[in-house]
Every structure is written in structure tokens, then in C-alpha cells.
């Protein structure tokens, strides 16, 4: 059997490696148009930032190592320019020589990945406007950055002004680039079309990260986009924003998303899915029974949402590829779904999510409930922890977990992984109550944040707690008695306009004379004290009580 | 309704707090013989170590705060000395005054915890021989340590010799105490009866931690126990070990395990379980329908093993208590099981486990398979990571996950929690293959260690990989051809006696002439290269091949 693989990085190299292990006698050819295979795309920003100083560490395998250990015929600089499904062959162009040849296959794997989007703006092709997808892109950015830093520090044109970089798009890669450029000493401006950074997160969770980014000196322009790039006399670029702001830049990074590489597939008449990725079945087989596909170019079912989705992430690419290889080699393995678990480090903070966001659930018309809590990453009395923002989305009837997001400092990745696991296994918020997680003071709490989120969510489902949401303010409190149950000192510093202060410790006494039929809306700092207050009032006959999900903490990130 | 709770810490305070939230009108009395309620037992070693410098941070709640926010009647210094189930009352002794009185209950919760074991050895009651369970114990140890350190540094008897501490028992608390005492500058000796530290872990996983402990200057005596304590002329103690070694000590910490506090329960005729803890049903109700129990004093079903077990850990205590409170308040909530998820920080290392150990599975006669892998905590090319030791135990047929253990530096707690979650939800090693965990270079790998463990385990179940185990050496390699597939340089430095070196890159060629019917046993550093070698040989017709689980890495920790 002869297996040909188009693309030689996360998806392609993984198909080839797994196929070899399953079939020692197959002929396996990997065709990669770029100069490298098996490199760590995800590490590229960190080499630019010199956090990963040794460039060679990013090259996980080479054509030679793949030949030696796995007997794979890897051809770099070899672009597949046509696919003839009838003849079962591909046409390959050797980029160095220009030579073209035809390579036949018994089974083909398409793993061409995705290309960064380059919006058709004036000046988009100017030197100095970069995308970041591969080693060559990285080398180009780093070379320009190094030169600019050198020039600023010691060149003849030394001006004392720092190197200025503009990052277009505040998704994960944009934010990583902002951090790494800043780390090198550049002055960084980030431009994002949406009204928030990190669009895969809901806004209550992204705003704390946004503030952290600003606090580290990164300039943010939200709700606007680049309109044009132009060369400045004397060097450098000017970026014109739609908001009519002009930002000077020595370097521009476009990180405005990626588009699946489906050129070969469409030209050959393979079916695409509704979102424009290559359509595959749960065996990662395309509409042609001799062709499989994996990685950023494909659509897969979503774990929580209906329909198929493009999820350009390395974990799915690697696991899809492994499944594709198994089926290519005659096994019967299913790739069930992708849930979009993702994470990013942003200076000292960490943020990420898994499953559906509230926005997606709303867009898809799926009923859900939400809770927001702010537990600390580990026991508060043990040094080195901080509050995190943890949001849970779950089904109203069954309590099935639909999505989770978190932002904070320590222990965020762990909670995301646990919640991702529960979503993957179809678990509910009641399962979260029962999870037995590893506890010692440096690592968690006897009631872990995940347990705690489960308690709160279960209380909501059982009707032991009724929440109101910052998103619904001010409508949610109109015509109600708004009670702040924090201490007078806390109230003094900040409170929601119109609130009365009735500290929790005095509530039992104070509420004796109140009208029990009048609606009461409660809040405190994070929701714990107002929960206690809720239980007190409801059990004393108050008819209409609700407490603010996530307290003033979530509220302020939403409204300030 | 009147609810009386015996014990006011993890279990007792949690019962009371949850009961109040469910029943605003109940009378709730907490009786605690010690001077404090709601303190952080788990933080005690770290205050001695001055990692947690502010003692008051350990007092999470006080009688006053529980009164104010939860309207709970908390009485410290109040020991329950008798239980009259017929009369539904307890007899309370106020320790300060000696006054005794009877307190009636409608529903009683027993949360008396456990007491540290004090083996009846000569000299066990000498001053300077301590246990650590509560704030008073902590204060006593810290006072003595502070005084000894002061004296050594500046007192008239200043000798230049450091303060010497002996810790008896190398379980989690013992190891934490060793670290914290060392951190204060004491010279620490740990004595452990078993032939390994951290008995809840299998030996391959505990030995790396043992070596780390020794590398940090802690002296270890394994396979021996304290035989006697005696006062030294001029101050201090001498600890005599069963091995006839004598160790001088200014301070001795007994951390040889705990025994459930069942005195009250047995005197009142409540049933005990087979392991000597209070017997409860899945509603945490004892054999008396008006009495519930939770925490270190009870036995609960094990998630994986048959029978009921005592698991003296804070997470279970807190969640058992919450379930008990719900049932006390008339709800119908089940506490399903405890799986013994536990973790400990040991200087820079972290180790822990969840579910059953190999020892337990063997003892219970449960069939299992095991794999050992050594992935890095996050992407190897991103700084700050190290190899961990990860061991998985699973059922041969279904692949159900039965247990997992890990030791390493970064990301150990996260993988334990993910694996604990899978065990709790009844997942299999095939589920591990599919988990979609949060990946960016600082946090993991595109194929997370947990995925990787799932791959290897699934390969074993599917017959794609046959393992041999370090535990079975040398028998496992007798009469076989033992091949080391690492590089000559690696072979040179160390190899298993009797091994031939055939580097992976040369294996296809070299094996052409070999006898395919002769048994071959392979190994490499961690098991990856020998897995590739296994696939090559088996598919080339070799009849009897197996590769060493965990490679030389696991082997050397087992045999050196
Ligand atoms: C800067 C950066 C940071 C990232 N960080 C993360 C992260 O932290 N976490 C995460 O999960 N994901 C991250 N990703 C995404 C992740 O790298 C991708 O999801 C993953 O690499 C997709 O794998 P793939 O094989 O589909 O595509 P790629 O890895 O892009 O490989 C596709 C290859 O196919 C080649 N190719 C395309 N067409 C042809 C053709 N016609 N002929 C021959 N070769 C062809 C391309 O040259 C390319 O090398 C990051 C990506 C980038 C760029
Ligand atoms: C030093 C130390 C470190 C620990 N570290 C960890 C860790 O990192 N992770 C972890 O999971 N667990 C840890 N634990 C274990 C954890 O603290 C216990 O599992 C948990 O506290 C058990 O709760 P409990 O309510 O059953 O018992 P306790 O918390 O001990 O509370 C029982 C209380 O009942 C009182 N009492 C007993 N009898 C009577 C009576 N007759 N009348 C009145 N009062 C009575 C006792 O005085 C005691 O205060 C640690 C324990 C210690 C001592
Ligand atoms: C490196 C690359 C070629 C894949 O390599 P691979 O050979 O599948 O190897 P990995 O290192 O991922 O190891 C996985 C295999 O080793 C096996 N394995 C790992 N440790 C093992 C151990 N200790 N014992 C036995 N087997 C082991 C696994 O079972 C798995 O084999 P299987 O798929 O046949 O079951 C490919 O992932 C790649 O090109 N990656 C770089 C690009 C990328 O992923 N970018 C995005 C992230 S930055
Ligand atoms: C502190 C202690 C009294 C328990 O307190 P508690 O009142 O149950 O409070 P916790 O802080 O654990 O919070 C849990 C409750 O708050 C609720 N909650 C937490 N955050 C919330 C939020 N943001 N919004 C709404 N509710 C919230 C939870 O739902 C849960 O309530 P429930 O049980 O009624 O569902 C008890 O755990 C204790 O004494 N601990 C110290 C001893 C100990 O555990 N030692 C071992 C570990 S060191």
C-alpha cells in the first residue's frame, strides 16, 4: 500500500507516523511545500520573544529523523498543485527546481492546514506587514524585530524611541505576540474589531485579561479594525484604523484568524462542509473513499453544539490525524467531536475555555443556565494564589455541562482540563459536586473550585438559589429593593447605584419589618454572602429574591 | 428541629453550615472539645515551616463568625463524653470549668475525626515527642522548634550544631513536616517502617520522590521503626530504631497514621465497619436513624475497590458532611464513594495518586494492566518543564481506569485531577485517547500526557504493544535476547546487564538475519523508541517480542 500525505506538520506528520506504526510495509510519502516538517507552530511566538532561545528546539522532527526512525519519505519544498482522484495521483512541484512530477497513491491524507487571513487592505503587502504561521514567517519577523531593536539601541538613527509594533487581531496568537513583542522591549498596540479581546471567551471572562494586558503597558484599540497601511517617509509604517486613528509601527503582525486550505480539495471536487472546511465523516474520511483529511482544514462535529465546526487547534489536529491513520490502515476508529478547549498565557494571567460559550448557546437557541464564581487557585492561606473568574454553562433540565471558561493566575489550566474532561464524558454539574480532586494547600482547596462551581450550579437547578445577571442590569433591578450585603467599609468604596447596604451579619434582624412581597435583589463581592442572605430571606417568607451571579466582581468587569 | 454536631472542623463545621443554609429555623449546636473550630488542619505544617507566616490565616472561621453569618451555636472547649441514643441526648463536659450538662438532639452528626497513632513505645510520652493534628499541637511544635533554633543560633549553649528533628512515618504529613522543618534550618531524619516513602503510592512512583528528598539533605531510614525514645543527659532525646541505630533529636514528630475516633459511637452501640470506622449508608446515616456521621471517623465505599474504606482526607470529609447535612435536613442525597485522590508537595516535586494502587489491586485479586510513561509537564521546547512519572492501572477487558499515580515537577496535580475525574465518571483508557485538554506551550502538549497514557494503554489492550515490567526482572528476560535500542552513547553510560545495543535507526537492517522465533525483549529510555522497535519486529514476523514499560527510567528507580 502506498500512502501519500499532503502537509507535514501537526496533522500530516502525525498521520504518517501512526500509519508507519500500524503498517511497517506501506510506502509512506509526505509532501510539504514549506522548508520544514514537524515544527512547533505553537512555539513560534515564544522564539520571537526569546523565551525559547534555541530555534532548533522548535524543529521536533526533520526529514532525516523521520526517515531513520519511521522509514518515511519526507519531501520538503514540495507543493502539491493538483489532485487527480480518478487517476489516484497528485502533481507535485519541487519549489527549488520548479520541476513537476506525478505521484500516485492508494490512500491519500490531506493535511494542508490553514492560512492566516490577509484582508485586502491598501498596503497589506508592504514589507513589515507580517503573518505568523511557519518557521519562515517567524524568521522574517524575528529578523526585522532584532534589526529594529538593534537600530534603536545603537544604530546611527538611534532616536531613543522604542520599537513600535502593531498587532492586528486579539485572538490567542495576537495576544501571545503582544506579550512576546513587549517582552523584547517593543511598544505594542493591539487592534481588535470585536469589543473584547479573546473572542472565544465571553466578555466577563475576557475583561480581566484585557485589564491585565493594559496594566502591562500594551495599548488596546477595541471595536475598530485596520483600514490601510502606508510607508512612512524615513522608514516604518503607519497603520490607519477605521476609527480614524493613525498608529506608527516598525512592524505589523496580522493575526486576524485563519482560513482552511481547501484549494486542492475543492479543485478536485471534494465536498466541503457548511463552514467551508473539508467535509469528513467520523472516520475522517472525505467524500472520496480513498482520501482522508485532518487538521485545520476540516470540519468536525462539535461536542456540545449542533452542526460541524472548524477548530484550528493543535490537539484536535493531532488526534484527528491519529484517527485518520488508523482508518487508512484498515482499522475502524471514530473521531467523535471537537469541543474547542483552548488556553492562553497573557503575561501573568491565564485564560481559556471549553465547550460552548454563552454567545454560541444564545446564537444556536440552546437553553442554558450560567453561574459565575471567583474561587482562589489554591487554599487562600497558602502563599501564591489569587482569585480566578470561573464561569459554567449547563443545561437547565439534566444539568449537563455545556461550557466552561476561566481566567486567573494559578490553577486555571487545571480547572479547564477537569471541566473539559467532564464535558467530554457527558457529565453534569451534579458530577462536579462529587469529583474527588487532589487536595493539599499548594494545589487546591478541600472543596475545589470545580466542586464549588458544581455546588452553586446544582443549587440553581434545585431552586435553592435564584440568580440575576450583570448582563441584565439595570433592567434586572428596576422596581426592586437592591441590597448590598457586604460590610459598610466595602459599600463605601464602591456599590451599585441605588443599592442599600444591609451587612449580612445584621440581615436577620434588619429584615424583620420588611415587606415580604416586594422583590429583593441581592449582591455581595462574589456571590457567597448574598447566597447566605438569599437563603435567609427566602426561608423567612420573602417571595421574590435573587442574587447577583458572580457579585460585584463580575458586575464591575462587565460595566466599568 | 434541633441538630447537634460533635466536632467542629472539616466535617462538623461543614455539616452545620450546610444545614443552616437548608434550614433557617433549625437550632444548630456544634460541640468541639478543642479550642478552635474550622481551622485548616492541612496548613499546620506550613505554619511551622513559616511558609504561612500569619497564624490567624489558619482559622477560617471562629465561633463568632459562625454565629454572625450562619446563626450557629458553637461551643469550643466542650467535649461530648457520652451519647444516649434512647434519650436522644449527649453529655457535654466544659473542659475549662469541668461542668457537665446534657444536650438533647433531634438529629445528631458525629464528626469526631481521627487521632494520630501513638505507638506504645518506651518514652513515647516524653516532652519533645509530638503529634500534629490541631492548632494546639502546632503551637507546641512551633514553640519548641523556635526555642531550639534560637538557642542554637544565639543561646548560651550555642554549639554550632543544627537543631535535629526526627519524623516517624513518611506518609504525606511526615514528608510535609520533613520539608517544613528542613526549611526552618533543622537537620531532619525520617524513619519509615515500609521499604518506601509515601505508602499510598506504588514504589516506582515513590522512589523518585525519595531520591529528591535525600538530595535535599533529608536523612531517610526505611524498613525500620522507632523502638524507644529516651532523654539525653543535658537535653534533647535519643530515638532508638529497631535497626539498632540511635538518632539524636531535639524534636520528634510522630506521623505514623491516624485512627478513627469511634469511642463515643462504640460506647453507644453504633455499628462499626470492617475497618473499624463508623458504618454509614450512602446517605451518611449510621445504624441509628437519627444519627449521621462524616469525615475521618467513617468508612465509605471505594470507587474502584470492593468493600468500605477509611480515607482520612479533607475533600471527602467536606463532601461527606455536605451530603450528611442534606439528608439530615430531609433531602435524599447519596454519597457514592471515595477514591482516595491525594497529593503532596515535596520540596520541588509533587506526587500523588487516585483510585487503586497496584498493590491494592493485587491484594484484592483484581485483574489489571499497567503502563508507565514519562512525559514532560508541558511542551519540552518551552522552558520550565521536566519529565514526570505517570502510571496508569486499568481493567484488561473494558479498559476502565482503575488507578493512576504521578510524580514530577510541573503539571502533576493537573494530570491527577483529570485522571481522578475520569475514574469518577467511570471512563476508560479509550476515553483518555479522546480527551481534549487545554494546550498552549506553557501548559501541556498537543498530545497531553493524559492522551499519551491513553494511547499506550489502548495499544496494550488492542494487542499492538506487549510490555514487560521492571518488577519482573530478571525473570522476565531470562532465555531472551535483550535489546537496548538507544544510541551507543546512551548504552555506554548505563545499560541492563546482558543487553545488546541495536540502535533503533539500525534495527530494520540489523534484524534481517535474526531468528524470528527467539524471544526478544526490548527497552529504551522511556518506552517510546522500544515501542517503535516492537512494531518493526512484530510486523516483520518476530513471534515473541515485548518492550519494557517505562523503559530504563522506570527500571532504574526500581532496581538501583
Ligand atoms: C503562531 C501559532 C501559534 C499557535 N498556538 C497554538 C496553541 O497554543 N495551541 C493550539 O492548540 N494550537 C495553536 N496553534 C494552531 C496549531 O498550530 C494548528 O492547529 C495546527 O498546526 C494545525 O495542524 P495542521 O496539520 O492542520 O496544519 P499545519 O500545522 O499548518 O500544517 C499544514 C502544512 O501543510 C502544508 N501545505 C499546505 N498546502 C500544501 C500543499 N498543497 N502541498 C504541500 N504542502 C502543503 C503547509 O505548508 C503546512 O506546513 C498555533 C498556530 C500558530 C500559527
Ligand atoms: C497536619 C495535617 C495535614 C493534613 N493535610 C491534608 C491535606 O493536605 N489534604 C487532605 O486532603 N487532608 C489533609 N489532612 C487531613 C484532613 O485534615 C482531615 O481529613 C480532615 O480534617 C477530617 O475532618 P474531620 O472533621 O473528620 O476531622 P477533624 O478535622 O479532625 O475534626 C474533628 C474534630 O472533632 C473534635 N472532637 C473529637 N471528639 C470529640 C468529642 N467527643 N467531643 C467534641 N469534639 C470532639 C476534635 O477535637 C476535632 O477538632 C491533614 C491533616 C493534618 C492533621
Ligand atoms: C512529532 C510528530 C511527528 C508525531 O510524532 P509521533 O510519532 O506520533 O510521536 P509522539 O511523540 O506524539 O508519540 C506518540 C506515540 O508514541 C507512543 N508512546 C509515547 N510514549 C510512549 C511510551 N512511553 N511507551 C510506549 N509508547 C509510547 C504513543 O502510544 C503514540 O503512538 P501511537 O500513536 O502509535 O499510539 C507530530 O506530532 C508533529 O509533527 N508534531 C509537531 C507539529 C505539531 O504538533 N504542532 C502543533 C503543536 S506545537
Ligand atoms: C469553612 C467551613 C465552615 C465550611 O464553610 P461553608 O459555609 O460550607 O462554606 P464554603 O466556603 O466551603 O462555601 C461553600 C458554600 O458556598 C456556596 N458558594 C460558594 N461560592 C459561591 C458563589 N460565588 N455564589 C453562590 N454560592 C457560593 C456553595 O454553593 C456552598 O454552599 P452549599 O453547600 O449550601 O451549596 C468548613 O469547611 C470548615 O470548617 N473548613 C475548615 C476545616 C477544613 O476543611 N479542614 C481541612 C482542609 S484544610
Relevant CATH superfamily of the largest domain in chain A: FAD/NAD(P)-binding domain
How many strands, which pairing sense, and closed or not: the largest β-sheet of chain A? 5 strands, parallel
The assigned CATH architecture of the largest domain in chain A is 3-Layer(bba) Sandwich
Strands of the biggest beta sheet of chain A: in what spatial order? 3-2-1-7-19
Distance between the termini of chain A: 62 Å
Contiguous runs where pLDDT drops below 50 for at least 5 residues of chain A: none
Whole-angstrom Rg of chain A:
27 Å
Which protein chains make the most extensive interface, counting residues with beta carbons within 8 Å of the other chain's beta carbons?
Answer: A-B, 88 and 89 residues
Class inferred from helices and paired strands of chain A: alpha/beta
Number of domains of chain A: 4
Task: Determine the mean pLDDT of chain A.
Answer: 97
SS strand fraction of chain A: 15-25%
Identify the bound ligands: flavin-adenine dinucleotide, coenzyme A
Number of helices of chain A: 16
- Considering DSSP H and I runs of 4 or more, what fraction of the residues of chain A is helical? 25-40%
CATH class group of the largest domain in chain A: Alpha Beta
Q: Give the CATH topology of the largest domain in chain A.
A: FAD/NAD(P)-binding domain
Global morphology of chain A: globular
Looking at the chains present, what oligomeric state does this protein adopt? homodimer
